[in-house]
Amino acid sequence: MDRKAKAVWQGTGKDGTGHLTTDSAVLSATPYSFKTRFENEKGTNPEELIAAAHAGCFTMALAFQLQGAGFTPTELATEAAVSLDKDGDGFKISKSRLTLRASVPGIDQAKFEELARAAEKNCPVSKVLNAEISMDFTLV
Questions:
Q1: Which one of 54, 80, 97, 138 is separated from 130 by 20 to 30 angstroms, measured CA to CA?
Q2: Which residues are in coiled coils (predicted)?
Q3: pLDDT computed for residue 11 by the predictor
Q4: pTM of the prediction?
Q5: What is the Cα 67 distance to its own chain's centre?
């Protein structure tokens, strides 16, 4: 299975602009630029998209872990915070911090943590990130 996205950029790195489009059209000429990446201009940036991908991937992986163990979550809500840090002359994504709030009837804290850690380790986005991954969770 292949998934595709396309980036188009015009101009210099600092003053230019670009847009991103995905085959599904969820992103359709979505703007990105130096200002959307390093300042707070409206638009997206690669790190925000990686954070969304990590949150979504981990949460779905956890849903499958729970299902396999006989549990049905009422809600799994995950935020991923991706850190972009200076690395020599460039930058690198150094961390992805997952913060999970979960409501899962009938599960105890130890079993939930076991399944959440398995999902954290085994979701495909976690596996592709060359970064420190951490997870905090609250089971309600």
A1: 138
A2: none
A3: 97
A4: 0.93
A5: 22
Domains belonging to the chain, first-starting first, are 5-38 (no CATH), 46-139 (3.30.300.20)
Q: How far is the C-alpha of 127 from the C-alpha of 90, rounded, in Å?
A: 23
Residue among 28, 67, 27 at smallest CA distance from 49: 27
pLDDT digits (tens, 9 = 90+) for 58-114: 999 999 999 999 999 999 999 999 999 999 999 999 999 999 999 999 999 999 999
Measured over all CA atoms, what is the biggest interatomic distance in the chain, rounded to whole angstroms?
56
The dihedral through the CA atoms of 98, 75, 101, 22 has a sign that is positive
Please list, in sequence order, all residues whose beta carbon lies within 8 angstroms of the beta carbon of residue 133, skipping any fewer than 6 positions away.
Answer: 95, 96, 97, 98, 120, 126
Neighbours of 27 (CB within 10 A): 16
Place of tokens 């809600």: 75
The Cα–Cα gap between 75 and 72 comes to 9
> Which positions ≥6 away from 102 have C-beta within 8 Å?
62, 73, 75, 76, 77, 112, 116, 137, 138, 139, 140
Distance (Å, whole) CA 101 – CA 78: 6
